[in-house]
Design the sequence.
């Protein structure tokens, strides 16, 4: 079945069965592999994308549910002020270890800073809960979000 999908500012026509997770449309149909498959049940956050500016788990968001929405992936994050600040902070603080979860972490961090430009440690921990990092770089992720907030404030 044909679906129209607005992804990173460009409209794409994709052929997918109803019930196909957005994750697989992004990765398999559109060949954008920055969004990762982690658990498939929306528990780890590796597949996080933005749907109309809000972080969602693309493994449990279906193609038919995004027809009129703007989907943004990690590939477009550097084009936004908040995304660029988060990516700059990640590099400055060497947040990444293995890197597998980081696109989802960055997408969630951008969502947090969009809603709360000066989050407390408690705010960060509550918002980022559910984004799993197998390397346990949670302290560096937290510091990266705090640094991104400082960059945005300057």
Sequence:
């Amino acid at each position: 079945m044909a679906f129209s999908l607005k992804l990173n500012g460009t409209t794409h026509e994709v052929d997918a069965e109803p019930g196909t997770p957005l994750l697989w449309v992004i990765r398999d149909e559109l060949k954008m592999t920055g969004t990762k498959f982690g658990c498939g049940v929306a528990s780890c956050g590796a597949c996080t994308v933005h749907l109309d500016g809000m972080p969602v788990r693309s493994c449990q968001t279906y193609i038919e549910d995004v027809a009129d929405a703007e989907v943004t992936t990690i590939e477009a994050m550097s084009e936004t002020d908040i995304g660029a600040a988060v990516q700059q902070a990640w590099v400055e603080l060497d947040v990444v270890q293995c890197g597998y979860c980081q696109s989802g972490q960055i997408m969630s961090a951008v969502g947090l800073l969009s809603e709360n430009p000066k989050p407390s440690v408690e705010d960060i921990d509550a918002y980022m809960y559910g984004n799993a990092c197998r390397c346990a770089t949670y302290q560096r992720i937290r510091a990266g979000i705090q640094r991104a907030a400082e960059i945005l404030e300057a």
